[in-house]
Request: fold
Amino acid sequence: ALIVILFGIIFFMNIFNLTNTFDAYTSDPVLYPVTQVMAGKILLVNLTSFYGLYPLFLLPIFWVTGLSVLKFSVVMSVLICLSVLSLFFSMREIIKDQVLMYLGFITTIFYTLFASRIIPEQYLQYWPIRYVFPCLSILLVVYYFKQKSKLLYYLSFFVYAAGILWNFDVGIVVFISWIGVLIYQEISTV
Reply:
């Protein structure tokens, strides 16, 4: 019940509309490229995006739902919850003691998400833009080493390549880390 309440808090605290605090310095660099892609501009040709090609990934969602500040914040909130859910499942697989797992998870969430909200603004450049693919990569690595599945092995390369396109800063680190893990796995079996 505590985890469900925690996810509800995370989801609803990240939704904003024009009546909430909207900081142009943190929200506008993330929202602006999405609005311009929706208007028909092409990223990297006549439009720059500081944080990667994530607007192209979000474009199909906003074609269906339409784009507004509220809808944009709902999509960002869903991505944040997806990241946190990935962390939860990863920790649940790795940490066997239930009490330590829940305390570790709640501490991680409090430190990274709630402690940064003393000043009421959404820093979308980090949550979820730079956070979603590292969380997904941890989950993929955990399940890959648990199952040794070829499907997860090949799927991970597509996910990590998409991460590079989504946000180059973090995507390239995640991809290189995956290659490093595979190299270590091969060396350790020799």
About this structure: The CA atoms of residues 30 and 111 lie 23 Å apart. The radius of gyration is 18 Å. DSSP finds nine helices and no strands in the chain.
